[in-house]
Design goal:
The chain has 281 residues and is an alpha/beta fold. The protein has helices at residues 2-9, 29-33, 49-59, 78-87, 105-117, 131-137, 148-158, 180-193, 195-201, 206-217, 222-243, 247-250, 253-272, and strands at 18-23, 39-44, 64-66, 72-74, 92-99, 128-130, 164-173. Strand 1, helix 2 (29-33) and strand 2 form a beta-alpha-beta unit. The radius of gyration is 20 Å and the shape is globular.
């Protein structure tokens, strides 16, 4: 968190206030944050990140609220670029993500995928918005863990608001996976936590879940498994080609994405069977 706060305190445009909500941490978070005299610290019992965010924005004095996580480092022009969107009259904004210091093949591939994704990007969630919008939507749903940002974006868009994309406001995310198994673990975790969001929205992707469930069940029948695996990988390959993915990653990315979908589906079933009530992080 020290690196995060340093990046926020060294912006070309100053924040009016910076609030850290400590969600019942048991490490040195509080000790580190107290060294930053310009940062306000709020203590909270552990209730997960949605509750911590809601506590933070309700305590904030400003009109524009930026939600920031401790596994990110921000370009020095980040706030300046974000505020340009609000000066245009926008009320909700999402920034541009990059991988923090990508040093492995997986990390470099993910960063390259970000570059392609953000060439033609339609935002579905927002990380910076006015306090009025937060009051109108109710903020983050504290019953969700994983897709809570997508859920808030859904409600913002449902109100008829637009979410703007600040393409030059760069956030370097340390939370992106640097290994193949790290990516699978994250996909599994997301799958474990997606069911409450699907129930809330009543939009369950039965075809997708059914497809990958069939793939998992056919693992002992190699021809069936291989066929289903290659069909989806072929679909991803075509999509990657249309996006202009580099040949350096094109040979592996479709396989990578298919394996992540399998891990996510395993997570869905684990969650459906009650595993989501356990700590899976």
């Amino acid at each position: 968190i020290a690196e995060t706060l340093h990046s926020l305190l060294n912006q070309t445009k100053n924040f009016d206030e910076i609030i850290v909500v400590d969600d019942g941490s048991t490490d040195k978070t509080v000790e580190i944050v107290k060294k930053f005299k310009k940062v306000k610290l709020i203590h909270s019992k552990h209730a997960e990140r949605s509750a911590a965010r809601n506590k933070g924005w309700k305590a904030a004095k400003g009109r524009i609220i930026a939600f920031i996580e401790s596994d990110a480092v921000f370009d020095k022009h980040w706030l300046e670029e974000v505020l340009k969107e609000f000066e245009k009259g926008e009320i909700a904004v999402v920034d541009r993500r990059k991988v923090w210091k990508p040093s492995t093949f997986i990390a470099k591939m993910n960063d390259h995928f970000f570059d392609l994704r953000f060439k033609d990007y339609t935002p579905f969630n927002a990380w910076i918005m006015t306090k009025e919008v937060l009051k109108e939507t109710g903020g983050f749903d504290e019953h969700l863990m994983g897709p809570e940002d997508k859920d808030l974006g859904d409600r913002i868009l449902a109100k008829g608001y637009k979410i703007a994309f600040a393409s030059k406001a760069v956030q370097y995310h340390k939370g992106e996976p640097f290994s193949f198994f790290g990516a699978l673990r994250r996909s599994f975790f997301y799958g474990c936590r997606i069911l409450p969001y699907w129930r809330k929205t009543k939009h369950i992707p039965y075809v997708k879940v059914g497809y990958f469930t069939l793939m998992i069940l056919s693992v002992l029948h190699v021809p069936w498994f291989a066929t289903l695996f290659l069909v989806h990988s072929g679909y991803v390959l075509i999509r990657d080609l249309l996006r202009g993915m580099s040949l350096r990653y094109l040979w592996f990315h479709p396989l990578y994405m298919t394996c992540n979908e399998i891990a996510s589906t395993v997570g869905v079933w684990y969650g459906l069977l009650g595993g989501h009530t356990k700590k899976v992080r």
